[in-house]
Amino acid sequence: MKVLLVIAAVIALILMIPLKARVIYDGDLTIRASVCGVKITVLPKKKKPVRLSDWTKKAVLKREEKEKRRAEKKRLSDEKKKAKADAKKKKEEKEEKPSEDAGEGHKKPGRGLGFYMKFVRVGVRVVKKLIKKLRRNIDIDIYRLWIKVASADAESTARTYGIISGGVCHALAFLGEKGHVRYHAPKEYDAVYVEADFTAEKLDFIVDVEIGSHVGRLLGIVNGVIGSAIAGLIKEFLFSKEK
Length: 243
Prior knowledge:
By secondary structure, this protein is of the alpha/beta class. Strands 1, 2, 3, 4, 5, 6 and 7 form a seven-stranded mixed beta sheet that branches.
């Protein structure tokens, strides 16, 4: 009994592990991941220090030889893939070519639009489920979302500004409906700001957003999406009368 309790406690702790990802763009892209408070910089990658030993004649020749072997290996692999693709194409052409004895009535019927529409409906179902799960299980912290709309034409700038400002407003309202969006505005600034700049000619923006969740929530998202896909496929291909 104690062993089961320990296992259950360990599983519960694993499911509660917090995961975060912070994306910052202010001209340069920075991505940081965090697991249990331990931060890892994904981008930009840390540059390796230059070592003089890597640039000796022996080291350079060794790298060149390695690159030649890699290039030769890739060439052989590409040739093999091409030969395989050509053989497959010839086989398909041979199978599709009607025999001398076969008439028009012996042609294999193709799949209609209804068949492919089934996959479209399953895809829509999965996307809806994914969005629903994300709204409930993802926390979003917005530090800066500043967008400066600009273009060479004033009318185009005004039109684009209306589209972007409206889109941002509706998207944040949709995501924040469940209370999972928080704002951390810098002092004397707004966290979200969209403006039209009629003196500039190019759109510019600054993004600083952190997305967080737990292992248990992410597993719930994955299970929900997979379950939705399986249910959709069963409904469309086993119970649907459409062909």
